[in-house]
Amino acid sequence: MDAFADKLGRIGAWCGQNKYLSAIKNAFQNFMPATIAGAIGVLWTNVFINDNVVNGAPQGLGSLLPVVMKLEPLNTIFSAIQFATISCISIGIVILVAQEIGEMNGETGIFSGVLGFISWMVVTPNSYSLSGQTVMLADSTTKTVADFLPQGATVADFGGISSSYTGATGLFTALIIGIVALEIFGLLRKMDALKIRMPEQVPPGVAKSFEVLIPAFLTVVVIGGIGFAVHSVTGSYVNDLIFTLVQEPLGQIIGNNLLAVLLLFVVISLFWLVGIHGNNMVEAVNQSIFRPLLYANTAACTSANYSGPQDIPNILNLTMLEMFGKWGGSGLTLSLIIAIFIFGKREDNRAIAALSVVPGLFNINETVTFGLPIVLNPILGIPFILAPCISITIGYVLTMIGFCPKVVLEVPWTMPPLLMGFLATGGNIMGAVSQLIVIVTCVVIYAPFLVVYEKYQNKQSEMVD
Length: 465
Known about the structure:
The structure is a single chain. The protein is mainly alpha-helical. Among the domains are: 1-25 and 255-465, no CATH class; 127-160, no CATH class. The protein has helices at residues 2-17, 19-48, 75-85, 89-104, 111-122, 163-166, 171-189, 204-211, 213-234, 238-254, 258-273, 278-302, 318-325, 333-343, 347-361, 366-371, 378-400, 419-424, 429-464; strands at residues 53-54, 57-58, 127-128, 134-136, 142-144, 158-159. The chain has a two-stranded antiparallel ribbon. The protein has a two-stranded antiparallel sheet with strand order 3-6.
């Protein structure tokens, strides 16, 4: 076990020393307070102060305890917090990763982050034509806004940045631009011919501004040129191209396929292990493919011709994947928290587990993911990948043999485990029992790796002492 831990520890050390992986990890760790604030906003508006009922299933505490809805006016505040953090995560990350790369290249001050943001803005579209927007009519035909205008009438363009670029779908672009822009800037900064030298009597801050003027300008020009070239050749913006080349091909091969789903969850876990929000990376795939499968189940269950579970068509669907693959957060880390309470001996790990248990019950796991950490941790990274795959497989088998009812209702992703299983299966207790089975299984999966990791932590502490 010790030899195994040493080998994985060396791999982790290499990952920790890698410039770009470290920059990404640090950027996400530094953004974590904002992420947690956004998660609290989600909890407030989707769990605590929410009285919606969908297909008979309560969507929040307000439907069970109406008195809490007196606080509903405050939802505006928490919705704004959610938008400013989670929906604008790409803006924060591009600034932070650019700042990290700049500091690793010897830059001081905050200009590296500012330059990263400017470079990201240069390749992000900020003008849109309303007349070109499409509208879906009741008969399923599609028309553009221009089709409804009187002859000769036009609609002025409007400016702004789409939330598809500031949110999750723009995250990969933010990481790439933040790194590439600051590496270009670092190379140009080394060229003495590009430095504007000011007299000694000029204040240092002003002198430095002139010194970086030409490298910064050329950096923005190069990044803008790359974005222009991509758009000219492909007709797509950088972020759209990534969506076309990565997300859409994944959507074409997944469908109602267990092996494809397991591969998807491996990809999600791998993203998380390098500090990238894996769920956000594939959310478009999840929504576009698995939500229709869920709605097909709901329609079959509520149909007048419904005659039994055999009429429900799909085992895999959006809520089923949340029920078996995302309870407690990505990597099913709630089971790791339970394992720490049972098998953990280190006080620092138990303190993090105590801090993480309440968010974990609502499927929010940033505190444990970045706190232990699991990011760039090869020892805990193995069960982080295995647990969701094994849990989904067990859930799939239990559903196939009829032990677990097929998921037919959509419930909020923040719904606590067991209650989620009960509601998602239409109020069937076997849904909760099925979730309990996978929770116990995943605790067993995490336990030996936790023991190995704590031995490794103890050895590292002894070396420091």
